[in-house]
Amino acid sequence: MAIFSDIQHPLTFTFGILGNIISLMVYLAPAPTFYRIIKNKSTQGFQSIPYVAALFSSMIWIYYATLKTDATLLVTINAFGCVIETLYITIYIAYAPKNIKIQTTKLVVTLNIVGFWVIALSTHYLAEGPTRATILGWICLVISVSVFAAPLSIMKRVIRTKSVEFMPFGLSFFLALSAVMWFFYGLLQKDIYVALPNIIGFVLGVVQMVLYFVYKNYNKKKINLEQKLPTTISTMDTYPVCDAPKHDANKDTNTYDQIIAIESTREENVGAGAEEPTLIKKDVMKEDMIIKASMGCTSTVPLGAIEDHNQIKTMEAANRVYLVESAA
Q1: Which of 191, 228, 257, 278 could form a disulfide linkage to 186, CB 3.0–4.6 angstroms apart?
Q2: pLDDT at 323
Q3: What is the C-alpha to C-alpha distance for residues 179 and 207, in angstroms, rounded to an integer?
Q4: Contact 162, 219 (CB under 8 A)
Q5: Please, which domain of life does this record's source organism belong to (predicted)?
Q6: E strand or H helix at 326, and its extent?
Q7: Tell me: the pLDDT tens digits for 72-91?
């Protein structure tokens, strides 16, 4: 019958329904993450604390709502929250490493079983009527603030890594929107325990969206910058150095034979009375070309260097004439 009390206040009922719908989307937002966990059979570094805390918060809010006469819409959304968060935690424990599995199980038992029943039994036996609702209201407020503050660690990680991988925009947007709906619901209900924590939730949701827009393209800009940077820097543009080839014993033998043949030809030419400096120079150049060819250098001397070499040969010939004339 409590829901008919909400219908008597159409605006309150409207914000409550919208809050249920948007909060439902918030609860379903991590579904792709858990699909990846199931698909990869790994928790991939995700933490279980936000889901354990969300389950605890939903349980406390249901207990608080049962003490109110017009809070059916709080019961509906938090009941769904208990179901979906329990499913998330079960999947997480199933695929977590052994040590993380043990830690998560201990946390669930400590917080969601022992902690919840300590609060429930102590408020039931130590407080009565409106006092019990007030105490539970403050407990719910503190827990809600803690749940809203949980993304602070994610925000810190985003700032440190400059990556929004673990902070999707959709989740931040619906968190902020959900906080707006529940704030007005609590305000119209004159329930500060509902309205107050959602102010903090709205602020944190906006901050998350701002961080998302700041860092969403950071990795793309970094990749583009790295692609524009040169991978190598040439320090010898005029005379490039050829890469070191693999050792080839046959090539070494052929090269040695060719050099021996050049040496023999050089000795024969000198013995026959040929011009020794010119022959030696030609043989040395040929020797050098053979050695470079054996090293796998296909193009070690640019055309400009060949032209310069021809000019040097012409100058050397002129100098030889000049020296001979001067000697005379």
Answers
A1: 191
A2: 34
A3: 13
A4: yes
A5: Eukaryota
A6: helix 303-327
A7: 899 999 999 999 999 999 99
Q: Pick from 237, 256, 242, 259: which is nearest to 295 by CA?
A: 242
CATH fold group of domain 2-221: Monooxygenase (1.20.1280)
What does the alpha-carbon distance between residue 145 and residue 163 come to, in Å, rounded to a whole number? 25
Which of 61, 87, 63 is CA-nearest to residue 198? 61
Query: What letter represents residue 117's amino acid?
Result: W
DSSP 269-301: HHHTT--HHHHHHHHHHHHHHHHHHHTT-SS-S
Tell me the mean pLDDT in the region 29-33: 86
The answer to whether 148 and 197 are in contact (CB under 8 A) is: yes
Which tokens belong to 103?
């830690």
Rounded Cα distance between 37 and 80, Å, is: 22
Q: Please tell me the least confidently modeled range out of 33-37, 93-97, 200-204, 280-284.
A: 280-284
**C-beta atoms surrounding 229 within 10 Å:** 6
Q: Range with the lowest mean pLDDT among 36-50, 81-95, 192-206, 263-277?
A: 263-277
Over 70: is that where the pLDDT of 324 sits?
no
Among 91-100, 236-245, 316-325, top mean pLDDT goes to 91-100
Residue 314 pLDDT exceeds 50: no
Say how many C-beta atoms besides its own lie within 10 A of residue 55's C-beta: 23
| Contact call for residues 156 and 87 (beta carbons, < 8 A) | no
CA dist 23 and 82 (Å) reads 12
Q: Is the pTM of this model over 0.85?
A: no
- φ, ψ of residue 43 in degrees (nearest 5): -80, -10
* Residue 239 structure tokens: 């005379």
| Distances, alpha carbon 211 to alpha carbons 139, 156, 184, 219, in Å | 30, 10, 26, 14
Amino acid at 56: F
From the list 73, 52, 65, the residue with the least C-alpha distance to 115 is 52
Summary mean pLDDT of the chain: 74
